[in-house]
Amino acid sequence: MVCAGIFADAPWAQSAYGGSAPARSILLSVYRAILAVAALHLGPLAATASRLLAGDRLG
Predict the structure, then answer these.
(1) Is residue 27 within 8 Å of 3, Cβ to Cβ?
(2) What pLDDT was estimated at residue 55?
(3) Distance in angstroms (rounded) separating the CA atoms of residues 57 and 26
(4) Contacts of 18 by beta carbon, 8 Å cutoff, 6+ apart
(5) Would you give the distance in Å from CA 58 to the centre of its chain?
(6) CA–CA gap between residue 23 and residue 35 (Å, rounded)
(7) For residues 9 and 57, which has the higher predicted lDDT (pLDDT)?
(8) pTM (2 decimals)?
Protein backbone atom coordinates (compact mmCIF):
# COMPACT_ATOMS: atom_id res chain seq x y z
CA MET A 1 0.00 0.00 0.00
CA VAL A 2 2.75 2.43 0.92
CA CYS A 3 4.83 1.47 -2.13
CA ALA A 4 1.83 1.91 -4.42
CA GLY A 5 0.99 5.29 -2.90
CA ILE A 6 4.52 6.63 -3.26
CA PHE A 7 4.89 5.18 -6.77
CA ALA A 8 1.52 6.58 -7.92
CA ASP A 9 2.26 9.93 -6.25
CA ALA A 10 -0.99 9.72 -4.27
CA PRO A 11 -2.10 12.88 -2.45
CA TRP A 12 -1.71 11.26 0.97
CA ALA A 13 1.82 10.18 0.06
CA GLN A 14 2.69 13.73 -0.94
CA SER A 15 1.43 15.11 2.35
CA ALA A 16 3.16 12.37 4.37
CA TYR A 17 6.46 12.08 2.50
CA GLY A 18 6.66 15.38 0.61
CA GLY A 19 6.86 16.03 -3.11
CA SER A 20 9.05 14.19 -5.59
CA ALA A 21 12.60 14.18 -4.31
CA PRO A 22 15.59 11.84 -4.24
CA ALA A 23 14.77 10.97 -0.63
CA ARG A 24 11.36 9.62 -1.68
CA SER A 25 13.00 7.45 -4.33
CA ILE A 26 15.39 6.06 -1.74
CA LEU A 27 12.48 5.39 0.63
CA LEU A 28 10.59 3.60 -2.14
CA SER A 29 13.67 1.45 -2.85
CA VAL A 30 13.94 0.51 0.83
CA TYR A 31 10.25 -0.43 0.97
CA ARG A 32 10.59 -2.48 -2.23
CA ALA A 33 13.57 -4.36 -0.79
CA ILE A 34 11.62 -5.17 2.37
CA LEU A 35 8.68 -6.35 0.24
CA ALA A 36 10.95 -8.56 -1.89
CA VAL A 37 12.57 -10.22 1.13
CA ALA A 38 9.18 -10.76 2.76
CA ALA A 39 7.82 -12.31 -0.43
CA LEU A 40 10.79 -14.70 -0.64
CA HIS A 41 10.28 -15.85 2.93
CA LEU A 42 6.49 -16.06 2.85
CA GLY A 43 6.32 -19.25 0.75
CA PRO A 44 8.51 -21.45 2.99
CA LEU A 45 6.91 -20.01 6.11
CA ALA A 46 3.41 -20.79 4.85
CA ALA A 47 4.46 -24.34 3.91
CA THR A 48 5.96 -24.92 7.35
CA ALA A 49 2.85 -23.54 9.08
CA SER A 50 0.63 -25.83 6.98
CA ARG A 51 2.70 -28.87 7.95
CA LEU A 52 2.60 -27.94 11.63
CA LEU A 53 -1.15 -27.38 11.53
CA ALA A 54 -1.61 -30.72 9.82
CA GLY A 55 0.21 -32.41 12.70
CA ASP A 56 3.47 -33.23 10.89
CA ARG A 57 6.67 -33.12 12.87
CA LEU A 58 9.50 -31.05 11.51
CA GLY A 59 12.92 -32.51 11.25
Answers:
(1) no
(2) 84
(3) 43
(4) 24
(5) 28
(6) 18
(7) 9
(8) 0.58
